[in-house]
């Protein structure tokens, strides 16, 4: 069942105000990830820290960002997307404020890795849920416009950071970014829910020992021991403990929507998207160094290539959803096409050092990256029911966190062991190829099955008048 089929959505109206508000939130918060090196690496070097420390801080940030998925489902159901997004903005600002006073490495880990990472993890799914409630056929367009805000932030915020670092120093620059992230609260004010929020019992899930006589939990029953006239106290206590454990497990599964894990297709979706996410992060890290060391380009040309990637990404975030929504291409198919495009770009980059060809592949990389970024949450929303969407987004984030910390570290080890960026690009290509190989037969099978169902329904529709006339003659 599609997320929006059970209710009427405006597909616009106030929804476009929500899109603009989410774009402001993304511009002032999500863009901060892109200036980590510019903002913090110089200070870490003055503290005599090496590259490993910077990588540790960013990896822990990604870990906290994705493992916030453990809480995002119950949080959105209980406190509404607007409050969750506002909380994320406050956490990001607080974490950056702590970093401005940092004198040791662990200060950056607490401030940037934990608070900023956890705050950003709350912002992304909550803002998507706010947009998702207002749109149906134009949902991809709305998400693309909101994510373009993050792209615009990546264009302007580096210049702000450079200005503050050059004129006021590190601490004022970080405090300026902390103040900027609070502008996200202005955007969160406009995330008005479409319908009155449904009352959930997720607050009770947090109090697992309360409400011992929960009438709603009809599936969990305590079988009366009528066959025994006398029960030992130990037996009664053990049954009570088993019942409490059953309630705890059931409520936890309900709060996090763990029943989604029974669906093998859902497993394929979240693992596949996590592999693409990991390959994308690794490519972003090695691409500048690959251009400089392997392709032999100077720093100005490297910057130009990265600007080409960012520019193509922003343009396609604005244009691609308009095309795919009009053609009604499924979100997962667009994601798969983007993955295949990134695979082609990786292989071509590994086999050439020609600047014109590198620029062409940079354009392709930006275009295909936007296809995967836009359709990431949309693919989950198309597969999950509305009441399971928050849990589905949380489980997807958890899978990304697990695969980033395992497969992502493996990609780094391959790069260091082989001492070759070309081998690293091929390793990323293997991950992308795996997703293409697993997803393509499944999507094709579902497409042909749906086509057969549609053709049968059409045949039934066309045959019904004939049957009616035959019955009338008889």
List keywords for this structure.
474 residues, mainly alpha, 16 helices, 78% helix, globular, disordered N terminus
Overall strand count: 0
Please give the share of residues in helix.
Answer: over 70%
- Main sheet, how many strands, which sense, barrel? none
**Radius of gyration computed on alpha carbons:** 25 Å
Secondary-structure element order, N to C: HHHHHHHHHHHHHHHH
Poorly predicted regions are 1-6, 196-202, 212-231
**Global morphology:** globular
Give the integer mean of the pLDDT values.
81
Could you tell me how far the N terminus lies from the C terminus, measured between alpha carbons in angstroms? 41 Å
Strand content: under 5%
Provide the structure class: mainly alpha
Tally of helical segments: 16
Polypeptide structure, described:
With 474 residues, the protein is mostly helical. Helices cover 78% and strands 0% of the residues. It contains 16 helices and no strands. The N terminus is likely disordered.
